[in-house]
Amino acid sequence: MPEGHTIHRLAEDYGTHFAARRATVTSPQGKFTDAAALLDGEVLHSADAHGKHLFLGFRDADWIHIHLGLFGKVTFGAAPAPPPTDTVRLRLANDTAYVDLRGPTTCALITDAEKQAVQDRLGPDPLRRDADPDSAYRRISRSRTTIAALLMDQKVIAGVGNVYRAEVLFRHGIDPYRTGRDIARAEWDAIWADLVALMREGVRNNRIDTVRPEHTPEAMGRPPRVDDHGGEVYVYRRANMPCHLCGTDIRTAGLAARNLFWCPSCQRP
DNA sequence: TCCTTATGTACAA
DNA sequence: TGTACCTAAGGAC
């Protein structure tokens, strides 16, 4: 259940456990069998992430293109690998480790050119060194779409999902229904810088934490919180619960088929 | 055992 | 805007 930080972390972990060594490549589930057979026994030479897309490089110009979608999961383990369950789309295994991929939206063998085409369709990724936040602002500043929808549009900015969207808008006191054209350059610069920092920390910790140190329950003299998705957040999935800062009930609404969360008091129009 | 839900995207109408 | 797709967990029966 990934946002961009998960994918970048996976790229690192695939590299750590499988780069520069021969791996067996299989598709126990059967939906990737032909491509797995082509790569079986080959060497993983690189693992690249752009937004929520993961690319595993083999041979000269072959890439496994993985997109986890909403349900995809990757699990690493130490060798010897246990018998795979029948939902494992892709397994890599070597002498020391194995990794299973389940439920991805995409798992396909593609060429260099096809990889480039995927990346060309994506906006800048706060986790990539080559990211250009100006190109995102050019689209945002011309758009009558809400900033909440724009942040989820991977052509505008790549890697932000429903959690980072809700949390970064809260952290900057921005009403999610403001339009892109209404977002000032300075506001965008602050959002981008914040996303870079938050998502880097997300890669490091493999979870999303967005609550500033001065707003933790300990710092505010309140009982500890447990958010059921693993991280510490202000508004995500906290509908009808009191805002940590002002006590107003967090609101929720559907927006582009997703659940949006915000504090109507801290994030005024 | 069934139903709902989920950090996503693509395509049809 | 609705629907389809992929999986697993949790809660209602």
Please name the defining characteristics of this protein.
269 residues, alpha+beta, N-terminal domain of MutM-like DNA repair proteins, Helicase, Ruva Protein, domain 3, 2 domains, 4-stranded antiparallel beta sheet, 7 helices, 10 strands, DNA-binding
Describe this structure in words.
The chain has 269 residues and is an alpha+beta fold. The protein folds into 2 domains: 4-120, MutM-like, N-terminal (N-terminal domain of MutM-like DNA repair proteins); 133-262, Orthogonal Bundle (Helicase, Ruva Protein, domain 3), CATH 1.10.8.50. Helices cover 28% and strands 21% of the residues. The protein is built from 7 helices and 10 strands. It has a 4-stranded antiparallel beta sheet. A hairpin with a 2-residue loop joins strand 2 and strand 3 (53-58). The two termini are 31 Å apart. The protein binds a DNA duplex (13 and 13 nucleotides) through residues 1-3, 5-6, 52, 67-73, 87, 89, 102-106, 152, 154, 161-164, 208, 229, 236-237, 256-259.
